[in-house]
Write a structure and sequence with these properties.
The chain is mostly helical and 110 residues long. The protein has a single domain, classed as 434 Repressor (Amino-terminal Domain), CATH 1.10.260.40. It is built from five helices and no strands. Helix 3 packs across helix 4.
Amino acid sequence: MPERDFLDKMIDKRAARNPEFPRLLDAARRRRELLRALAGQREEQKRSQTAIAAAMETSQSFVARLETTAADAKVSTVDRYAESLGFVVQYHLIPTAEADSAPPVVVHAA
């Protein structure tokens, strides 16, 4: 088993104070996976952040933050980003017991 690092210890401390913390962390991970998938699609389409920003009627720096540090982006923002790439975000409800085995993001190729 790998040695536990600072992040592992921090998560343990936060979870001890707030039993909901692991669930919140997992939800943030799923959101990041979605934003990374969208950024990957943008790169695959060879489109710049500036072009996406124009389609979303926002700034390039906003798109950059969305792709790299947006911890809790609005659903409407994620929808606009996906639409600018020719995608629609759909939501699927998965029983909690099955969440670990289901992929957090599925991209259907055009």
